[in-house]
Amino acid sequence: MNCTLREWHLDDAEELCSIMNNQKIQANLRDGIPYPYRKRDAEEFILTTLLTNRELSLAITSQDKVVGSIGVFRQENIHFRTAEVGYYIAEPHWGKGLGTAALKIMCQKVFETTDIVRIFAEPFSDNPASCHMLEKAGFQHEGTLKKNAVKNGQFKDMQMYSLIKA
Q1: SS3 string of 85-96?
Q2: pTM
Q3: Which of 11, 58, 82, 108 has a Cα at 20 to 30 A from 74?
């Protein structure tokens, strides 16, 4: 299945709402994302992204339809050459290789257009699909971060993956 990355458009808000109003997706994201996710939330996300990180926070599309999101976020201080990648794919598109393709495209773009040399991701340990996706995209497993987060009132282990610029 074909995958492309592009800047967000305000008219993506309805599709974004449809994706984000899924508790299976929300369960694997950081806190602070509203649920239910309203059109106003989507519009605020899109406008903020366009103003602050438009080149590195992109819509994942397939057949001209938004199917997810991917963003790379530069770290600060002594970690300024490192970035965290975050992503999600709409449930109807799970298992079709779109996430892996998006990761490969985004990481290549970051390494070619910025001075970032390390991209990392920290999926929850109980999300093996995300871990597998990272591995298929060339990320190396660096270890387990025990009780690294509290999500929905539960301690969660996380996995540390990274991709280093050649």
Answers
A1: EEEEECHHHCCC
A2: 0.95
A3: 11
Handedness of CA 41, 36, 90, 128 (dihedral sign): positive
Q: What pLDDT shows up at residue 1? A: 66
Convert the pLDDT of each residue in 14-70 to its tens digit: 999 999 999 999 999 999 999 999 999 999 999 999 999 889 999 999 999 999 999
Q: Do 140 and 161 contact (CB within 8 A), yes or no?
A: yes
CA angle 128–142–158, rounded 5-degree value = 45
CATH code of 4-164, in short, is 3.40.630.30
**Residue boundaries of the structural domains of the chain:** 4-164
SS3 21: coil
